[in-house]
Known about the structure:
Its EC number is 6.3.5.-. By secondary structure, this protein is mostly helical. It has helices at residues 6-15, 22-45, 74-79; strands at residues 84-85, 88-89. It has a domain at 6-45: Orthogonal Bundle (Histone, subunit A), CATH 1.10.20. Helix content is 40%, strand content 4%. The longest helix has 24 residues, at 22-45.
Amino acid sequence: MPNISRDEVAHLARLARLAVTDDELDVFAGQLDQILDSVAKVSEVAAEDVPPTSHAVPLTNVFREDTVRPSLEQQDALAAAPAAEDGRFRVPRILGEEQ
């Protein structure tokens, strides 16, 4: 007997704006029940004496040091641009916001 009902699956489908058939409700109820059982098993394994971690092995920073180096001048970069304005690249507006 699944722990999650067809009505709960139908409710979740409505919240997610998914169109599901009656047959799919039964299939999804079983699948979601298996997922919930798996999560419950993982929760049982996690003991209080084991500290929570985000990675199984420690990570070290592999970034290089920042160093100032010569680079392209602003006017040279803008010289090849199709459009420039106020020392910046001008690009087509993609949002309908007014300035």
